[in-house]
Amino acid sequence: MTPQQAHFQYLLRLGDNALILGHRLSEWCGHGPVLEQDIAMTNIALDQVGQARSLLAHAGKVEGQGRDEDKLAYLRDAWEFRNALLTEQPNEDFAFTIVRQFLFDAFNFYLHEELKSSQDEQLRAIAEKSLKEIAYHLRYSSEWVIRLGDGTEESHQKMQHALDSLWTYTGELTTPDEVDTMMLDAGIGADLRRIQPLYDEKVAAILKEATLVKPETKHMQHGGKNGRMHTEYLGYILAEMQFVQRAYPGMEW
Q: For a Cys staple, 48 with which of 18, 89, 112, 159, CB 3.0–4.6 Å?
């Protein structure tokens, strides 16, 4: 893999994480448990789609093949996406959505803290701008994890079930691979080994306050960020998200 290819793949990971999770959250629009949270989750979805647009536009320029953010979002198949498996997991219920969001937000916050020092000037600027939004996302999801985890017996049970189900998808976030290593060595990417203890500490603190028990399983699912194996859920996301572009190729508003 050349440095340019690794750079492109790294930016795809960042952009695809934001795009797919943003789409997942957008599914709550009009279906939130209360109006205030319906609006809040829709706003977070918009934040993430905005971040995805900036990151995928930059990725297209690094690739140098004439693909802009729209082509990268709507004209790639599932095996070309590089989002973490956690981001494509279904909403199920409000507990699943909040736990998924928190587990990703905690990682995403420390990731972007590191990316503020990237030698890629464009990526550094995107990270600095996005971090303000991500800090809010983390505060929002943390507060809801605590509120529901330490709430009623039913809310606690649902949150623990969601945590037990989603935990196996968290290992991929902080496990470096060839692309991560190349980008770290080039001064472009984040140091995942430095992020991991910060992530673990943050997650542990919130779970303790929420009276939730960290799952003991050591088995972790991998394959999303390198494209080797996504879950079946990504195909359904793309079928919905890409329908208009596929049905009417090249159309513009």
A: 18
